[in-house]
Amino acid sequence: MTTGIRPKNVLTLKQALEVAEKYGFAIGSFSPRYTPMIAAVLRAAEKMKSPAIVQISHKELIRYGITPKEFADEFYEKVVTEGITVPLVLHLDHTKELETIAEAIDAGFTSVMIDASEKNLEENIVISREVAEYARAKGVSVEAELGMIGTTDFVETDKDEELYTDPQEAQRFVRETNIDALAVSCGTAHGVYMVRQPKIDIDRLQAIRSLTPVHLVLHGGSGVPAAMMAGAIRLPGGGVSKVNIATDLEIAFLGALGREERLTNAECQALESSLLEKGRAAVEDTVIDKMSHFLGSKAQADHFV
Q1: Is CB count within 10 Å lower at the N or C end of the chain?
Q2: Cα–Cα distance for residue pair 298/294, rounded to 1 Å
Q3: Which residues are CB-neighbours of 259 under 8 A, at least 6 positions away?
Q4: What CATH fold (topology level) applies to the domain 13-299?
Q5: Where are the beta strands (DSSP E) in 108-149?
Q6: pLDDT, tens digit, for every residue of 211-250?
Q7: Which residue of the set 73, 93, 160, 285 is catalytic?
Q8: Which residues of the chain have pLDDT under 70?
Q9: Do the strands 240-245 and 215-218 form a parallel or antiparallel pair, or are they unpaired?
Q10: Do residues 183 and 174 touch, judged by C-beta distance below 8 A?
């Protein structure tokens, strides 16, 4: 954040999800993956009067050639220059490295995710608690993961194994780590669904909700049917309030450019302006569709004081 002054509409994850859970909608956590696409997510949010989370993971930072500061600076610049007024969160997604988490917090991220889900329960608790204590002292929210969320493209995470979240373990994990949000594994996966189709385990979600009040996060939102997602969001007592959407945005962007191969961030920045705007328009349309027909977040910005 170049100015050092955070705009009033940029919130922590905890602040944003408290409102979402109260009013029964989910906030999309969108991964633009290329810094020129951040503006498209913000424009969509402003048009829909919807809160939004803009995120990037550690693996995406490496794959696309971006630093946390570059991503944050572009985010904050566009919040100002695009005149964005709706509630926003700047979130660091799946990250295992404490150094990257510290770098992101220093750059102005208002939320970070520590992903120690590959560790055993005891180690995951220790690592996640350490990050929660560090981030909270700096006014930043923390998301963690319990269970392992599968993947089909290895962009955000390294493993394709899936291990469903155990509700009893979730109760202990949340109590001992003091995290703000919990990413649960209950049937979705990162990437594009090709053979295996998503099937959200609503009973598992309900069991986790009954044992812990923490805000619930669903990763792998791209490709999940809207009716299935609605059931997860509207659970009695509060359902999923943050849904990660990444792959659908990149597919829309690359499709608008008539290509399949991913770009680096530098290659994206070097595109001629007409192509960039074409890509931005496709991403914006995708985000608008998700907010309107998938998340229930359209026109929900008015609930934020």
Answers
A1: C
A2: 10
A3: none
A4: TIM Barrel (3.20.20)
A5: 111-114, 141-146
A6: 999 999 998 766 778 888 898 999 888 899 999 998 899 9
A7: 93
A8: 1-4, 149-162, 188-198, 221-222
A9: parallel
A10: no
